[in-house]
Amino acid sequence: MNVMVRRLYTVVNGMPKPLVLIAGIAMIGVLGTVDLLTKNEILFSAFYILPITLIAWFAGGRSAAIVSVLSVSFLFADDISSRLMSLDSVAVYWNNFGRLVFFLIISYLLASLKKAFDRQQALARIDSLTELRNSRAFYEDAGMEIERAKRYKYPLTLGFIDLDD
Fold this sequence. Notes:
- The protein is mostly helical.
- The chain folds into 2 domains: 2-123, no CATH class; 127-165, no CATH class.
- The chain has 6 helices and no strands.
- It is elongated, with a radius of gyration of 23 Å.
- The protein starts with a helix and ends in a 13-residue tail after the last helix.
């Protein structure tokens, strides 16, 4: 399971941001359609968090905010089409405002967490004394180059200088 999740993360992380956004919007469209068809028999609000999470993590906070508004639009349409609440009711606006705030908070927190994660990953590969790439970065790059040399059957020459030891 862990290998599959890691592989999926690598694939999605390598996708261009517009493609991730399109995939997230498609997921929202499918959820919204199913939500409209079930006529409030099944609550789908929690399922909208998955595409919002994916977009916040892989495409950024602004994109996730846009998708949050789109999600609430589908939920609002579902509330109105199911005729459980009328447009005259304050509850329909209040409930959807609450959903929007919840989705926007999730978007903001996940986008902030992703920025912090990326920053920590970058700092983990830099030597604090020399401010150059450290041995962890060297081994990662060397591993990729070795795999590339094996795949294309190229010779590989490697040089390494330890500056601070």
